[in-house]
Amino acid sequence: MGTETVLFDIDLIQRYDRPGPRYTSYPTAPQFAAEFDESALRAELRASNASGKPLSLYFHIPFCEHLCFYCACTKVVTRHREWGQPYVERLLREMALIRRDIDAQRPVTQLHFGGGTPTFLLRADLERLVNGIQAQFRLLDDDTGEYGIEVDPRAIEPGVLALLRNRGWNRLSMGVQDLDPAVQKAVHREQSLDLLAELIQEARSLGYRSISLDLIYGLPLQSPQSFAETLAQIISLRPDRLSLFNYAHLPERFPPQRRIRAEELPSPAQKLEILQQSIGALEAAGYVYIGMDHFALPEDELTRAQLQGHLYRNFQGYSTHSNADLLAFGMSAIAMVGPSYSQNRKDLEAWGAAVDAGRLPVERGLRLTADDLLRREVITRLICDFRLDVAVVEARHGIDFWRYFAESRGTLEALARDGLITLNEGGVTVLPAGRLLVRHVCMAFDAYLGRSQTQFSRVI
């Protein structure tokens, strides 16, 4: 990474640091509607079998022993780890319900346990879940799949990493957020560097292929100096991937954030200083800016996929497996099957009741139109490649690109004048000064902006 990859232009950032979608999907989740129900999902599942595409499986484990005040995830905070057992039983039933309509012999190229805290599950419960997945779906046995789990170093039983590695898991991610004790106390997430280092060492000794750590800037009591110390400690651990997220303080939407004192948050100027110095430190350490808050080592699969034009982005972040139907299990989990999205019920009891009654627990979803699919491809390629080849899009969708996107031209020309992109008849290229602001480039192609009152986080 260097100035040819990302350029920190503080004037541009201050001008363009406005709210916008994160584009983990397009259309984004606020467009999902209750009209897309269980029968709609079952129809999409059956139709998807004709494609022969591989499968991606996501399992949402919502439980957390500790409440992190910054958290905006769907979760259930409890110390009752025995709650995991009935939850796993229902996950097994939900898989069986899905298999009524899906060809379960399609290979699973991607599998992810997210949360919440997946390692909240006791080892016996986790093993029962893994056994059930292996019994009901066709997992790869050659270690070429992208099988990962989110780990909380404070909540994991001995032997769990070895169990998963022996079953084919090869990736893990951990939320660190910050290592400064005062910051950790302010957000109610206290964990030591030693604990983190021990777990990473164990994972590497077991042969995990990729280790990813998450940091958040903009948390209470952070300063450029304190965060620089955190980042130096993290870099010394040499994670394969690192995410640097902006904390969005939205206490009216996320009640746990009401416990954070707004007066203790760093100022906008301090946040920009933290971001700028962090990019410099990661650059010096050899990390490549993948995009949308993500960095990776040059030899990492994400970096190689981006260079080859194969990078993809979905609800779990960047991925090297784009051509798969995503099946989702557990409360609030989001699936992407064929030209559709569907989200499970977000209430634990409602989700469980639907599964117990033999119904897929769909709460809402969306079947994408041809326009949605076209715009999704445009936005995905910009986020993943930082460039857009108009000829490729025209050939794939049978359109005259600039006539179709005539309403986007004015916005794009303004971005070009400001040095965020280059623009010509052949396509769009995001320049180094625009890469941190790529969400703004994507927004030029978003047909839904302004149609709802959804409150998005700021771009930076």
Automatic annotation (TrEMBL):
GO terms for cellular component: cytoplasm. It is found in: Cytoplasm. Its cofactor is [4Fe-4S] cluster. Pfam families: HemN_C (PF06969), Radical_SAM (PF04055). Its main location: cytoplasm. It is an enzyme of class 1 (oxidoreductase). Pathway: Porphyrin-containing compound metabolism; protoporphyrin-IX biosynthesis; protoporphyrinogen-IX from coproporphyrinogen-III (AdoMet route): step 1/1. This is Coproporphyrinogen-III oxidase. It comes from Igneacidithiobacillus copahuensis. The gene is hemN.
